Every structure is written in structure tokens, then in C-alpha cells.
Recover the amino acids of this structure.
């Protein structure tokens, strides 16, 4: 079952479980579509894997299988202004 992380690991934008703009790699690193397309060129900065659209978990399934609430940020060699 996917963890469904609550934020973009690059810009820290909120990404709720039903966010169609969430992108993930095979390790479930999570980014928003804007960062995936512009800053990351559709590649995960952690593993270099492909970033694809994250599936949306149906609302009724979130009751028994909730999304993660733990925010994760990617390790960035260059910190830019946020």
C-alpha cells in the first residue's frame, strides 16, 4: 500500500491524498507536478527514478488505510529560496 506522503519533497507544497498533481517514484518519493516538470525534469533527485502520477486513494478507503502525515523533504545540495 502506498504511503501517500502529504507534501512535495522539493517545495513543501501540501499534497492531500486526492491531489491529482502528486508525482512519485518507485520508492514513493513525492513531488508536485510543477517541481517534477520544471526543477526535476521528471526524475527523482533521490534515486534518479522516473516520476509518475500518484494514484488517488478513494475517500472511503482512507478511513481504514489513512495517508501518511509525516512530511519529508529531499536532501538538496543547493538550498534555494523557498
Amino acid at each position: 500500500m502506498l504511503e501517500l506522503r502529504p507534501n512535495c519533497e522539493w517545495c513543501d507544497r501540501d499534497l492531500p491524498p486526492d491531489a491529482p498533481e502528486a508525482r512519485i517514484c518507485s520508492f514513493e518519493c513525492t513531488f508536485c507536478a510543477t517541481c517534477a516538470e520544471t526543477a526535476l525534469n521528471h526524475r527523482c533527485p533521490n534515486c534518479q527514478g522516473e516520476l509518475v502520477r500518484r494514484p488517488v486513494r478513494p475517500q472511503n478507503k482512507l478511513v481504514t488505510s489513512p495517508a501518511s502525515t509525516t512530511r519529508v523533504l529531499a536532501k538538496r545540495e543547493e538550498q534555494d529560496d523557498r
Q: What stands out?
A: The chain has one domain: 1-68. The chain has a mean pLDDT of 92. The longest helix spans residues 33-38. The longest strand covers residues 22-24.
